[in-house]
Amino acid sequence: MHTRLTAAALTAAALLALTACSSDTSQDKPADKPSTSAPATPALSKAQLTQQCTDAVPALTPNADGEVPSEPVPAECTQLSSSEYLDAYMDGISQSNQEGIDDLQDELDQ
């Protein structure tokens, strides 16, 4: 019984020592001060960011199979979440396809 008590005490001491070594020291650092300067350009709304991304998708270069890759993400789309980007990407592809259909129909009507 004395051996179990000693082993438990040593284990507890070792765990406490290891815990102390891995403590978070970020509290010792001063907090970053908020920026007092105004942004150079006004922030765009989520709808404006999404529209810019949607408009950028048709400008992507198709690959050899004619597919427009979703990666890499256009610069206009980097502020959107993954799901928002994929929605804007699909909307951009849809708009581009519709423009192609309209152009073809115009040619056939002539």
Give an overview of the whole structure.
- By secondary structure, the protein is an all-alpha fold.
- Helices cover 54% and strands 0% of the residues.
- The protein has 3 helices and no strands.
- The model has no long low-confidence stretch (mean pLDDT 78).
Summarize the model shown.
The chain is built from three helices and no strands. With 110 residues, the chain is mainly α. The chain has a domain at 46-109.
**Backbone shape:** globular
Say how many strands there are: 0
Main beta sheet: none
Helix/strand-derived category reads: mainly alpha
What would the average pLDDT be, to the nearest integer? 78
Q: What portion of residues is helical? A: 40-55%
Strand content: under 5%
Radius of gyration: 29 Å
Helix-strand topology string: HHH
